[in-house]
Amino acid sequence: MRVNFDRQAIDHDRRLYPAATITQQGFVRWPGSEAQRLMKQDVDNEIYLNMTPKQLYDSRPEYYRNFELTQIREHLYQEVRSRKTSSYWKWRKEQQRLAGEEAAAKKKEAAAKKKEAAAKKKGAEAKKKEAAAKKRGAAAKKKKKEEATKKKEEAAKKKEAAAKKKEAAAK
Q: Is 6 left (phi over 0), alpha (psi -120 to 50) or beta?
């Protein structure tokens, strides 16, 4: 919302007060000028390779009528430099993008490994608990069996004692 309002305000102000076509130094403004368009065309066609900046300056009236030689030379060098370095910056940006993707993939892989390790650990803990529960169950079963055996033995002893009492009473 705010961006749209700002854009409308800037557009309104630019309609009321357009950018000056002449700079404070008395030269034609470079951005959007015919000389800029021709400079880009000359660089595209590689005309600048066969001439000195002075010869290029003298070759077009759009250059020498509106600008000084130093300005044209600087704009020529700037245009050539931007063409040479733009491929480097594109490559560099691509390398950074790839490195970022690679780092994200490594981070994702590390998170997956960590999650897998946690799941294995949880599984091992569950197995330990299960084994402990089985062990406790087996111990409890053994104890019950021993108690049952003791009760049977006690019952057998009581029967024996009762039988001995009967025998002794019968005598």
A: alpha
22, β-bridge pairs:
28
Residue 24, both tokens: 């404070």
- Three-state DSSP at 28 gives strand
- Residue 130: what residue type? E
Give dist(CA 112, CA 106) in Å, integer. Answer: 10
Q: Report the 10 Å Cβ neighbour count for 67.
A: 21
What 3-state DSSP class applies to 22? strand
Residue 35, classified by CB atoms within 10 Å of its CB into exposed (0-12), middle (13-18) or buried (19+), is: buried
Q: How confident is the model at residue 26 (pLDDT cuts 50, 70, 90)?
A: confident
pTM of the full predicted structure?
0.49
Write out the two tokens for 41.
């065309």
